[in-house]
Amino acid sequence: MSADPPAAGPLLTQSFAEAVAEAEKIITSAPHIQTEQDLAEGYDYLAGSIRASLTMAWAYQRDFPFFVASTGPYTKLGLDNPDTLYFHSYLRDDAEYVVTGRRGSTADLSFQVLGGDYSPVRVPDSLTAFDDRAVEIAGDGTFELRFGPARPDPPRNYFTLGPGSAMLIVREVYSDWASERRGMIAIRRADTTGAAPPPPQVSALAKRYGVAGKILISRLKTFLAFPEWFYLKLPANTLTEPRSTPGGLTSQFSSVGHYDLGSDQAMIVTVPAAARDVAPYQGIQLGSMWYISLDYINHQTSLTADQARHDPDGMLRFVISERDPGVANWLECTGHRRGYVQLRWQRLSRDLRPADGPTVEVVKVAELEQRLPHYERATISRGQYAERIAARQAAVAQRMLG
Asked: Angle at Cα 207 formed by Cα 206 and Cα 212, nearest 5°?
């Protein structure tokens, strides 16, 4: 005879359902909501956050770890960089992990160990951060790294996990979306390789649903509070000098700000094009007040130095506006009167100075011909712009599947 099925108990998903309801209230009460578009984007952001929170809760495997995509077009958070593929895996500081991979042809590949996760009141400590210049890579592009407890005489490619190490983040950064190819990355715990985790138990699954709910609420609260720390206290329509990215990599600098533009206004951002030996990656992007990237697939809301048109004087000039200014380096506001702006430089060979950073001017869109140096060189036809969008769509499709 077959065993009787287990007796029905409380709904396993109840805690997560309650967290979703609380999350919806966080979204609908966000102070920046002014239009129907703002609210619709909030609900879209909520859907991606629900999806990501469940993924993160089920990926919490410190003994049998694997990399998962931290963010993507439909699971955005934290002003995600359109040029970056983010991967993360959970760790424990008393175990040793083996990371194997193959270096792609992207502009940057970096590794960071965090002590904990982001919360509404703190940025987690960055315990270890380096790019692949610190890694011994074979001639065929393959590599093996080890992360673990302190050793008296660590071998090459061994990185010590400090107390509290909780998460390994890998960033693969593209400058030329069309030509650069992604690599491969995998992780395993050294002493559990070849073994298997125990089968799932109802009690463990109940706990995971509870964790997913907590991740969801913390995620939304954190990244609505985060801009208050680093962006919104700045005057509108300004950008900071280049500075080491808070909580980020030692070889990454950024310049940040927020814009507030009328429908007939444009912000001109002028910045020197960095030499390749100084910063192989340089980019600019826009974000919504939800602190996530704007649609970078079907609109030009970001540009790298490789994608942008360079002026003869060595400067990059970007035009942020709602109206089409007819220039190649237009960054589309896509209906967002207000939003965030961030410039990044990565894999730096030196610290940046104020002179390496941007200057900003707000003008009327109708005045751009007079205010943009080399205006004739900057212009582009509607057909040429459509070709740019088609190239973005194709490149993202390849990158996400490659």
From this structure: 100
